[in-house]
Amino acid sequence: MSSSCLCDQCSALCCRYFVLEIDTPQTRRQYDDIRWYLVHQNVFVFIEKRKWYLGIYSRCKHLQPDNRCGIYDTRPRICRDYSTDNCDYHGGEYDWQVLFSSAEQLAAYAEEALAKRALKRSKERQKQQRQKARKPELTFVKKRPRATPRRLPKLRPGLMLGPALASGANGNGNGNRNGNGRHATSLRSLPVLPR
Known about the structure:
Blueprint: H1 6-9, E1 17-22, H2 28-38, E2 43-48, E3 51-57, H3 77-81, E4 98-100, H4 103-134, H5 157-167
């Protein structure tokens, strides 16, 4: 039985580059910016699971000649989280869909991608125009709010006549007393208001 560990066979591929996620390019200018990355040495770009990444080949300063880590006990968290399940030596094939190692590769890809995008936008505009032609646009006229009928207050003749009865006035300021000294007020002479 062999007592060799996986690290004895490792060539520390993961310690010779790093990768950063970048924005997915949408415009010619954004593709050209990524093309600028690729005109530099030791740079690559790839697409994996519809995300774009910039990779830079650069050997870790702490990688020793025997491919072991010189700061293993104090290595960064990214190194600590790295496992043999996804390591470059042991993990198998890379999962990227497209890999660009030159500016020319990216330029060809960009032309094709931008042409597809332009065609898709053109088809969407044509579809909208056809839908507009089929259905005339409805214009809405703002309705005026209905006027609510005014409710008149209920009038009570007793409340209205109370001051007149108390003062003894008959409507013209003259008191009209009957034979026993009381006011004689006739309700029949006043208009009756409907309820």
